[in-house]
Amino acid sequence: MKQYVYLFAWALMGVVGCQNRLGFDAAESPIQGQWRIVAIDHQDVIEPATLILEFHPDNQVSGSTGCNQVSGRYVSSGVAIHFLQLASTRRMCDAVLMDQERAVLGALSAVTTIRHDTQAQVYLHGSELHSLTLRRVLD
Question: How many CA atoms lie within 13 A of 57 on its CB side?
Answer without folding.
Answer: 2
